[in-house]
From TrEMBL:
Transmembrane segments: none annotated. Keywords: Antimicrobial, Bacteriolytic enzyme, Disulfide bond, Glycosidase, Hydrolase, Secreted. GO terms for cellular component: extracellular region. This is Lysozyme. Its main location: secreted. GO terms for molecular function: lysozyme activity. Gene3D superfamilies: Glycosidases (3.20.20.80).
Length: 273
């Protein structure tokens, strides 16, 4: 079936930049800590640091509950994906890592982002945030300019910001709760200014409590919550409900396992905005 306003296929012609281990102070932000040995953007994806800090369920659920819609998220860590196989196994949406910080772009983004769309899935892009390497506005612009846009085609999900434990150093990126809230707000507002929608925020209950002191001011952003357990449990402050639950880091589909909190028609509405 033909689709109007189909997004232009993303090109990876920009190539891959590697993330620097330290950064110049920008706008009063602290310098990024040196990367631990072996730490690379290729190893950072939605939940990679949450799994390290919070652990995973011994027996991760491999099926959906409460009528949710099955989905997945991937990054260059998975390489090229057999999207038809994922769709045949029941995946109906996918989030794909596009960027990290202000230098890294996913070398597999084109195959992953367009591949999900081409087999009929909903697709969206996410950014691995590093608040200590640039201000939120610059990082939001880098994301939008390298795959983090949005199209009202009914199949493109709002872009997401992955904010979790710092893989390179201090858990909260050397920021206090006020600095973190300001950074998150700047990123969020710039995404909205660029594409007309607030980004989804991906995070965990524990990280949000620790690094924002349970900031309640982000309810306009849809929540993508990470919890590797048999139930979603308590939600981070700001939210009385969630849009997506990342419930396992392996299972039926490549990458992480997700469930949209609603019906297929509601997922379409979520994409349409």
């Amino acid at each position: 079936m033909a689709h109007r306003n189909r997004p232009r296929p993303w090109s990876t012609r920009l190539g891959t930049a590697t993330l620097v281990a330290s950064a110049v102070i920008i706008g009063g932000l602290p310098v990024a800590a040196a990367a631990p040995p072996g730490s690379s953007p290729e190893d950072h994806y939605a939940g990679s640091e949450i799994a390290k800090h919070e652990g995973v369920a011994r027996s991760a659920p491999t099926h959906l509950r409460d009528g949710g819609v099955a989905g997945m998220d991937v990054s260059s860590h998975q390489g090229d994906i057999d999207w038809q196989a994922a769709a045949n196994n029941g995946a109906r949406f996918a989030y794909v890592k596009a960027t990290e910080g202000v230098t890294y772009t996913n070398p597999n983004f084109g195959q992953q982002y367009n591949g999900a769309y081409n087999v009929g899935m909903f697709h969206g892009a996410y950014h691995f945030a590093l608040p200590d390497v640039s201000n939120g506005v610059d990082q939001a612009n880098f994301f939008v300019d390298h795959g983090g846009g949005w199209s009202p085609d009914g199949r493109t999900l709002p872009p997401a910001m992955d904010i979790e434990y710092n893989p390179y150093g201090d858990t909260c990126y050397g920021m206090d709760r006020f600095q973190m809230a300001n950074w998150l707000s700047a990123f969020s507002e710039q995404i909205r200014a660029r594409i007309g929608r607030y980004p989804v925020i991906y995070t965990s209950l524990n990280w949000w409590a620790r690094c924002t002191n349970n900031n309640p001011g982000f309810g306009a952003n849809p929540l993508w919550v990470a919890r590797y357990a048999d139930s979603v449990g308590d939600l981070p402050a700001s939210w009385g409900g969630y849009s997506i639950w990342q419930y396992a880091n392996s299972g039926m589909f490549p990458g992480d396992q997700n469930a949209f909190n609603g019906s297929y028609d509601q997922l379409r509405a979520f994409a349409t905005g």
